[in-house]
Amino acid sequence: MATAAGHAVEPPHAVLVVLLARADWVPAELRGDSESGREDYCVCLFESPEGDGSTFPGGQVHSMDQALASGSFGAEGSTEDPLSLALRVAAAREVFTEAGIVLAAPAPPPVLREATRQILQREGPRVFLDCLIAWDGGNPNPVLTLCPLEELSVSGMRLEGASSPAPHIFITEVPDAEELNWAKTSTGRGGKIQWLKPSEILRGGRIQLPPLEHLIVFRLCERLSRLVDLPMLIADWQDTGGELSSKAMSSRL
C-alpha cells in the first residue's frame, strides 16, 4: 500500500491512454504526414527524446489519484469502485501533464493552465490536488467531471521483460477543437508529441512502437476509419469482454 500522497501504490498499477482527435482539429505543427492516411482522425504519440520509439501517454497510478477518487472525484452514491475511478483520474492527470489536454469539465482558467501543467511536470502527482484547488478558485474540495474514458483489456499479449501487471488501457476522444489549441509539441519526458493517422503510423514500419501500442494501432487501422464509429467499436469490444487479441496480427500493412 502507498505510504504518502504522490508515491506509487503497491502493487503498482499503470495506465495507457489511446487519445484520438479529429484530423481537421489537429494544429498543423502537431501533425505528421496525416494527409496520407485513410482515417479521419489521428492518434496521440510521444516520441522518445532518444529517438528509439514512440508510446501513448500514460504512467503509474499514485496515491494522490486514489485520494481524489475517494474525495473530490467520488460522487456521492457512486457505484464505481475506488480503484476504477483512481485509474481514470490517473489517465486524465497523465494526459494533461504530458499533452496539455484536459479530459474533464469545467476546464481550468486559461491563465492557470500552463502554469499548473509545468508545476505537475516539475513536482509530480503529489501536487495534483493543489492544481485542482487553484482551478476551482481556491475551493478546498474541487469537483470536476471526467470525460468518458472507456477501459479495454488485451488478451494474448506477453510483454518481454515485464515484471509488473499489464497497464490499464483507456480510449477516448479529445472533447473539442479548442482543447487541441492547448496541446504542446513537447512533454515533461523531454520527448515530442505527434498526431498521426493509424495507417500512417504503421506504414513501412518506420515508427517503432512497443507491442501493446502496436497491437492497438493495428486494430484501429483495421476496424476504425471514421471517428464517429468509435462508440460502436467500443461496444463491440465490450460485448467480447473488452478484449483485443494479438492473434493473426501482422507486423506491417
UniProtKB/TrEMBL annotation:
Domain of life, source organism: Eukaryota
Write down the Gene3D superfamilies for this protein, in alphabetical order: Nucleoside Triphosphate Pyrophosphohydrolase
This chain belongs to which protein, by name?
Nudix hydrolase domain-containing protein
